[in-house]
Design a protein that fits this description.
431 residues, 17 helices
Length: 431
């Protein structure tokens, strides 16, 4: 493997590993949720667990508004590694808590740290990869987050058979902390830190420099960039689209409790069954980055719009299953299959268009742009966490919970197709 490809591979692998650790620290709360609700020493029910998730999402929102700017100014690599270390420490600490207020605070800090992941990686990718490779690199990174979600769901759910929910937090935090110490050796800020440069490396540096210097926002400060963003219809369309998709993704952390209460599953069994969602996401994002790079902007509209229609049909089917009497075993199997397809259907639209758009439109302010979009997205998700937990906690509440998701999925399809259409029109006008 030549110098260029070796370093590109190393950077992508390092980002994948690091983001997997951030996902690990966030996912463990959802897996431990059913056991925490059943713990007689804790005053938790579905509503208060939803509040924990809501405070975590508030941390995500707050972090997106600050970490993107820090990544652009200090460097994506430094913020990325610091975030992993902080998330690891707070995850370990979470396992020692007993009071709701402490849960709210520690999970807020944990997810605040996790929020640095995507803006930091946008900065890292813009410094290492040319535009032609952005789709596939984001695809790899998104795939790693889904692999880690599947792996941690299965691993931690299995561990729940032999240890308490507190042990899960200790295991997850310890693994992430080790990673935070290892990564600085392999994840560098730019090509200039990669040692002796090959001819291909020099060409890549020249291409990146030319793109950066010629970008419309190359000489614009942070305040000016924010003003340009908020004046852009594409910014608001992608922000609202990702916000609606973020609400749909929040279903993931409720799935173990949903399955446990709907089908009377043990917490560990519900956790293992919930792996259907991240597994569907994993399979979808594995190839979506490559597909996105090869599709025309016009075809992207039809492909991604089609997957979002499938997501709507999945939620409608889940609601229908819950409204009639079925054989419970058959209903469980069908529910898991629908959850798998739902995860498969929403993940490409959630990960790829926003990530590619942020680098192309944001330029050297890409971390800031990712942060702003995600902040709006997680504001919507935060509201849903609080409301969703309250709704699901009522008698027959899961049906109303699914109705909220159905309405949101219809809105997400309309908004994302509108964004892709406007982006296609704008791209043609700029040629």
């Amino acid at each position: 493997m030549d110098h260029n490809k070796r370093w590109e591979f190393q950077i992508v692998l390092s980002m994948c590993l690091g983001y997997a650790m951030l996902m690990l620290c966030r996912t463990v709360v959802g897996i431990a949720g059913p056991a925490m609700v059943l713990d007689p020493d804790l005053a938790l029910d579905t509503a208060s667990f939803g509040a924990i998730l809501g405070w975590g999402t508030a941390g995500n929102l707050t972090g997106k508004l600050t970490n993107g700017i820090l990544a652009d100014r200090i460097g994506g690599t430094k913020i990325f590694i610091l975030a992993i270390g902080m998330a690891a420490i707070t995850t370990i600490s979470f396992g020692t808590l007993s009071g709701n207020t402490a849960f709210f605070t520690l999970y807020f800090i944990t997810v605040f740290s996790k929020s640095a992941g995507w803006p930091s990686m946008a900065n890292i990718i813009s410094a290492w990869f040319t535009h032609a490779k952005h789709g596939r690199v984001w695809g790899f990174v998104a795939t790693s987050s889904r692999i880690s979600s599947v792996a941690t769901t299965l691993l931690l759910s299995s561990l729940l058979f032999v240890m308490s929910w507190r042990g899960l937090f200790f295991v997850a935090g310890a693994i992430a902390l080790v990673c935070a110490f290892i990564l600085p050796k392999y994840l560098k800020n730019s090509w200039k830190e990669s040692g002796a440069l090959s001819e291909e490396s020099e060409q890549t540096i020249d291409q990146l420099a030319t793109w950066s210097d010629s970008h419309p926002l190359s000489g614009v400060n942070t305040a000016g960039a924010i003003l340009i963003f908020i004046k852009s219809p594409r910014f608001w369309l992608i922000s609202l689209g990702v916000a609606s998709l973020a609400v749909l993704f929040e279903f993931q952390v409720f799935i173990p409790i949903y399955l446990s209460e709907t089908f009377s599953l043990a917490p560990a069994q519900a956790g293992i069954a919930s792996a259907a969602f991240p597994l569907g996401c994993l399979i979808a994002v594995f190839g979506s980055g490559f597909i996105y790079d090869k599709l025309s902007s016009k075809n992207v509209i039809f492909v991604f719009g089609g997957t979002l229609i499938i997501a709507i049909l999945c939620l409608l089917s889940l609601w229908y299953l819950g409204s009639i009497e079925w054989n419970s075993q058959l209903e469980l199997v069908l529910t898991i299959i629908l959850i798998f397809i739902f995860g498969f259907a929403i993940s490409p639209s959630y990960y790829i268009p926003m990530s590619v758009f942020s680098i192309n439109f944001g330029g050297r302010h890409c971390g800031l742009l990712v942060g702003l979009i995600d902040a709006i997205a997680y504001f919507g998700a935060m509201i849903f966490d609080f409301i969703g937990g309250e709704v699901a906690n009522k008698e027959g509440g899961w049906q109303d919970f699914l109705l909220i998701l159905i309405v949101t999925s219809i809105l997400s399809a309309i908004i994302m197709v509108s964004f892709l259409t406007v982006d296609y029109t704008k791209s043609n006008a700029d040629k």
